[in-house]
What we know:
- This protein is an alpha/beta fold.
- 55% of the residues lie in helices and 14% in strands.
- It has one domain (5-136): Rossmann fold (3-Layer(aba) Sandwich), CATH 3.40.50.1010.
- The chain is globular.
- The relative contact order is 0.18.
Amino acid sequence: MNGRFFLDTNIFVYCFDDNEIEKKVRALSLIGEALQSGKGIISWQVVQEFLNVSTKKFVSPLKAVDAKSYLQKVLFPLCAVFPNLNIYQNTIEIQEKTGYSFYDSMIVASALSQDCSVLYSEDLHNGMKIEDLQVINPFV
Length: 140
């Protein structure tokens, strides 16, 4: 393991949630650490999920110009995983082993593909170990 960590989509969503201040502060801290250290990564899936949620489902959806700016300054610099056959094959295997949904399994497969030691996510089982990857809910 190389000390890399993976950030799930919910981390980015909480950066814009003024109703969950503690989670917002923690999420901003994780993203700042990811950008500063170069050890935090995301996948194309996180980019797509975040842009979809932030431009349609937020209480105050991001305007196109703001979404494009966030994409350029935050999401794209962290994006290290793009679709390939191995990701999809590993997703299916992880789904079978863990019972996670296809898309949650794809997040795990993406993190494993980059030898991440930690996956920060509120959506998966806190403390679960999948191969050499530890799932951590940063909000507990």
